[in-house]
Amino acid sequence: MELGFLKPLFDRPGPWASVYIDTTRATEDAPAQQRLRERAIAGQLIDAGADAYTTRAVMKRLADEPVAGSPPGRALFAAGAEVVLDIPLARSPIVGEAAWSTLPHIAPLPGLLDDLPPCLIAYIDRTGADLELRDAYRREPVGRAEGREWRNHRSLPEDRYEWHYRNKTENIWNENAEFIATEIARRWPESGAEVLVLVGDPRERRAVHNELPEQVQAVAVEVERGNRSSADGQLDRRIAEVREKQARTRLEGALERFRIGRGRPGEHRAGPVDTGPGEAAEGVPAVVNAARSHQVATLLLGQAASDAGRDVWIGPEPDQIAVQRSETQAMGVAKPERARADDALMRSAAVADAELLLVPEGMPGPAGGLGAVLRWTF
Question: Which residues of 117-146 are buried (b: 16+ CB within 10 A; e: fewer)?
């Protein structure tokens, strides 16, 4: 998960109201149930010490939730009487939650958002392709590539001109495939997609695939169904499977790099920062040290991380983070404050443009649920 969308939360001081609420409205008594949920959230904020102005801003935003088209849940983050981020969730929180803390409580987000990689889809036929971008929140057309269409008006016997017709058609299709591939390659960098799906007849898909640049070919997948005019449920499921497979591959690759970088238990590389034997950090002290030095490329967070709620000490800047209060004071922080390790590390990762990957329960990951793949080591 890219964390850049959270950066607005770190441009201003706290304390912060962080709210996770179920907003499903599938039952007849949904409006009444929603009012009860909102009252419970207000009570939690008041009990936690939130100021009246910020609490009122949160409740007003929740009251403005439209009845139609509501997401399964929402996460709101407010400070200074203003809701700074209002994020629709892909999954409902199991229990509504409201916190009032120095840092926004962002750690639950990875488990509630759609973290499938953005996908660029090309619906291909012999005359061109329609391009569509899908990510967690969007499914929108982003352009099209229109090639030439060969029309043959034959008045002489078919066998006399059959070779010429087929050759001409083949040449035009090859030109169109090259044109489509060029347009895909042109739009690929700006799309932000991580996987390309080619939809169409096998011959047409393969022709376009063969014309793509190598770096785009490496993330291109062909699917069996569909063309420019078809986008049925089966195709949607197939595209979702492709995105899920890409997400699993990314996680497995990161965990493999973590395991290689971690080396054998008990090994440690000597140096100013104790990060382990290689390009990995494991456990709160090592990951905190790596975050302070801007070394973290991928933050690994276990879905049932026992160390996630452990206290660390922070200052106003994202890299002012330490396990001991005295360490934070040595950085020049006059009044260090306590924060949850997961929230503080996610703040550091977001500002440093690192990604976060959630390690599901049952999948081997870092001990205690907190680890990192590093950009570099000492």
Answer: bbbbbbbbbbbbbbbbbbbbeeeeeeeebe
Angstrom CA distances, 124 to 197, 209, 308, stand at 10, 11, 46
Write the single-letter amino acid at 362.
Answer: G
CA distance 34 to 159: 73
Tens digit of each residue's pLDDT (9 = 90 or more) over 96-136: 899 999 999 999 999 999 888 899 999 998 788 999 999 87
* CA dist., res. 108 & res. 318, Å (int): 19
How many whole angstroms separate alpha carbon 113 and alpha carbon 102? 23
Surface-to-core class of residue 364, CB atoms within 10 Å of its CB (0-12 exposed, 13-18 middle, 19+ buried): exposed
Under a CB-based contact definition with an 8 Å cutoff, are residues 268 and 277 in contact?
yes
Query: In whole angstroms, what is the distance from residue 70 CA to residue 206 CA?
Result: 40
Mean pLDDT of 189-204: 90
User: Hey, what domains does the chain have and what are their CATH numbers?
Assistant: 4-111 (3.30.960.10), 119-231 (3.30.420.60), 257-374 (3.30.1330)
Structure tokens at 109: 């987000």
- Tokens representing 248 are 């699993």
Which pair of tokens denotes residue 315? 């200052």
Q: What is the pLDDT of residue 27?
A: 65
Q: Are 218 and 190 spatial neighbours (Cβ–Cβ below 8 Å)? A: no
Query: What is the C-alpha separation between 64 and 69, in angstroms, rounded?
Result: 13
Give SS3 for 251: helix
Element (H, E) at 230: none
Task: Supply the DSSP symbol for 8.
Answer: G
Residue 279's H or E segment, with its range, is none
